[in-house]
Amino acid sequence: MFGAAGQLGIELVRELKERNYSVTGWDRSQVDITDSSAVENALASFEPELVFNCAAYNQVDVAEQEPQAAFLVNALAVRNLALACRQVDARLVHYSTDYVFDGFARHPYVEDDPTHPLGAYAVSKLAGELYAQAYLDRALVVRTSGVFGPGGLHTARGNFVELMLRLAGRGQPIRVVEDHVASPAFAPLLAARTLDLVDRAQTGIFHVGGGTPISWFQFARLIFEAAHLEPVLLATNEREYRTPARRPKYSALSNAKMERVGLAPMPPLREALDLYFAKRQA
Ligand SMILES: NC(=O)c1ccc[n+]([C@@H]2O[C@H](COP(=O)([O-])OP(=O)(O)OC[C@H]3O[C@@H](n4cnc5c(N)ncnc54)[C@H](OP(=O)(O)O)[C@@H]3O)[C@@H](O)[C@H]2O)c1
Hints:
single chain; 282 residues; alpha/beta; four-stranded parallel sheet; two-stranded parallel ribbon; 8 strands; binds NADP nicotinamide-adenine-dinucleotide phosphate
C-alpha cells in the first residue's frame, strides 16, 4: 500500500488487517511513488496480490501554480505503479476524484458520465485513471469525494471537518460556499466499501461517494450540529469567494453501481459525522 499515512491509507491498512490480509504500508518517506525504481523494488520484494495507491497530490489550488508537481504524483507515478503491478501480476486499486467532472449535471454523477476536468489537479487525476487502465486489464479505480477521516487530525492537509473546527475556535464568522455541492465520504467507510469491491473481484471504475449530496455550507452546518458548536456561519458563493482553481459546482457521486453489485449503501452523512467525532475523541 502506497500513501499509507494519509486519511484513507490509515483506514485501509486498519480495515485490511481486520479482514486478516497481510499488509505492508509505505508512507512517502519510505516509498515516494514518483521514484519508479523505488516502486518497482518495493513490489518486487513482496510480490503482492493487491496494490493500493492512496498517495496523491491533493492541493487543488496550489496545483494551478505547479501543475507539473500534481501531474508527477497523480498521473506519471500511477504509470510507475501500473507498470510495476504488471511485472508482478498484481491487481492495482487506485483512487480518483469527483473533480474529473465539470459540474454541469444536476444528478449525482454515474461512472459513464463524460469527464471534463476544470483544472490542473483534476486533469492530473483523470490522467492517473487513464494510466492505471492503459497498462492493466484488472485495475479498480474508485472515484470519491470530500474525504474526511480521523487521520486528517494528524496530516498536513487535514480535511474540511478539521478546518471548520479550527475556524470555529477563532471565534470569527465563518463563510462557506452554498453553491457547490459534493458528496463527502467518511474514510473508514470508503475503505470498507473498497475492500467489498475487491472481495467481489470488481474492476473498472466505481463511484464511492458519501451518499448524501450536500453543499459545503450545509455540510458545515451539519458538522457544527454534530460537534455541538454554534459559531456564526454565513453562506457565500463562488462569485464572492474566488479560488485559483475552478471547481465543479455540482460533483455529487451516485453510488448506484456499487449498490448494484451488492454493496451496502452509505449511511446518512450525519451518522458518518457522529462516527467521525466518536473516533476523533477515542
Ligand atoms: N481528500 C479529499 O477531499 C479527496 C477528494 C476526492 C478524491 N480524493 C482522493 O482520495 C485519495 C485519498 O485521499 P486522502 O484524503 O487520503 O489524501 P491525504 O490525506 O492528503 O493523503 C495523501 C497521502 O499521499 C502522500 N503522498 C503525496 N505525495 C506522495 C508521493 N510522491 N509518494 C508517496 N506518498 C505521497 C501524502 O504524504 P505527505 O503528507 O507527506 O504529502 C499523504 O500521506 C486520493 O487519491 C485523493 O486524490 C480525496
